[in-house]
Each structure stands twice: as C-alpha cells, then as structure tokens.
Amino acid sequence: MPGKIIIGVTDCSKYANYSNWILAADSAVEVIQLSGKTQNLHDLQHCHGVVLTGGEDVHPRFYNRPEWYPYCYADDVSEERDAFEWKVLEYTEANALPVLGICRGLQIANVFFGGTLIPDIPAWGKFNHSKLPTDKDRYHGVQVDPDSWLFEVIGQNDGLVNSNHHQSADQIGKGLIACALAPDGVVEAIERKDPANNSFLCLVQWHPERMYDQESNFVKNVRTAFVEAAVSKKK
User: Are 159 and 218 in contact (CB under 8 A)?
Assistant: First the structure.
C-alpha cells in the first residue's frame, strides 16, 4: 500500500479500542483523533476516511423529538459531540470521504440523513440489546439482506454479532436502506440505496472492534472494505 492512509476516528471514552482496531488493518494506516473538545475539523482535509465511533445517546432534538429526552441516559448525552459529528458528516458528504459508522456512529449518521431513532429499545417493546448483567457484551443473531451491498462484503446471510446499545435506528434516512436486522427487527446495519454511484458508507450497530472472533466476516471484511475505500480515495 503506497504512502500513508490517514483515517479520522471520532473521540469517545473507548477511543483506543477503535483506533487500535483500525491501525491493525495495515502498517500504512495512521489515525487522527477527531474531537468536539478540540473542534479540529480542519484535520479532515488530511483524512482518506472517517470512523464514527460508539458512545453517548444522540439527543432527540437532532431528529425533532426533544420530548423523548427522558428516554435517554441523562448522564450519557453530549450535544457538543452530536453537533461536531454532524459537521464531520457534512464534510464527508461534500468531499465523498468513506465513512464507517459503529453503534452510535450508525445512529448519528442515520439522523444526519433525516432518519429517526428509537430512544430506548425496551420501552418500545423489543428485546434488551444492552450489555449483560456481567458487564459483557450481549450476542445475538443477525440476518443480512442477500440483495444488499453488505452481503457482497460479508458473504453470509446470517451470523453472530455483539450488542451493547439501548437506542437504535427507527425511520431510515433519505437515500439509505436497512440491510441487516436482529431477530426482533432491530436494525443492525444501514447502507446507501445506490452504493455504486456514491461514496462508501457502511453503518453497523455491532462493535467489530471488540468482537471475540476477530476473524469473523462481520469484523475483518467490514474493516477491509472500509480501508480499501480509503485507499481508493487517496489515489
């Protein structure tokens, strides 16, 4: 891989997990931390791709449902981060930068494209998708649309993924489509309706950076596809 591939990784409490996972893809990869605390949007001009990481609940005012705020975890909301990552997405769309969204990354991107969220999955009558009482990730099955772009990447109709979230995508954003679902119907992945004629966008609800099986196609194939898209952007 000629030259360095620069990946912007958004800041969060477990930033190192994501940056280390991306760095492990190839020795030519470098990362830049993108943070609402430093407002370093100017660093995006050096990036060939962006990872939107997990973390806080997206404030419901960003999808015009401020009355749903009581369903959020009040100590786990950052409007500063929401606003910063909104600007990141404005840049990635304007400049056709590849984007990989993980957990919260899927959620903020879906909202950016005009979608909405379920602010608390159990309150909406679905299974618990948060951590187990032992503080370990929950695992469940996932079904991939065989006609989707994601299926071409992963090469499997179904599999096992980890889960640690209480919010999820509800109405899907404009130009996007759900391409993988949990058994209870919770959205597990989102892609563009027309991926061939648009920049790379892969949004997954699971956490590939910390799945037990790092050789799973739901981990390595997703990362490989993203890094290859960044390499193509660099050329």
Answer: yes
d(CA 186, CA 127): 9
| pLDDT tens, residue by residue, 91-141 | 999 999 999 999 999 999 999 999 999 999 999 999 999 999 999 999 999
Domain that holds residue 203: 5-234
Contacts (Cβ under 8 Å, ≥6 apart) of 228? none
List 12, 72, 103, 179, catalytic entry: 103
The amino acid sitting at 127 is: F
* 207 in active site: yes
Domain count, the chain: 1
Q: Domain of 190: which CATH number?
A: 3.40.50.880
H or E stretch including 227?
helix 220-234
Helices (H), 101-147: 104-112
Q: Is 24 helix (H, G, I), strand (E, B) or coil?
A: coil
Mark whether 80 is an active-site residue: no
Write the pLDDT tens digit of every residue in 35-65. 999 999 999 999 999 999 999 999 999 999 9
Concerning whether 166 is annotated as a catalytic residue, the answer is no
